[in-house]
Amino acid sequence: MIKLKINKALILIIVLIFNSMVLTGCWNYKEINELAIAAGVAVDKNADDTVHLTIEVVNISGGAKTTTYEPKFVESDGDTFFEAVRKAITKDGRKIFWSHAKVAIVSEELAREGILKYLDFLFRDAETREDSWLLISREKTAGEILQSKGMLKPIVSYQIDDTMRSQKSISRFPFIQLYEFFDRVFYKQVSAILPAVQLIEQHGEKTPQVGGTAIFKRDKLVGFLDEEDTEGVLWLRDEIKGGIVILKNVSGTKDKVTLEIFKSKCKITPVMQAGVLKMKVEVDLDAGIGEIMGSADYISSPGKQKLIKVAEEQIEKNIEKVYTLVRDKYNADVFGFGRRIEMKMPAAWNQIKGEWDDFFADLEIEVAVNLKIRGSATTRIPLKVGE
Question: What three-state secondary structure class fits 84?
Answer without folding.
Answer: helix
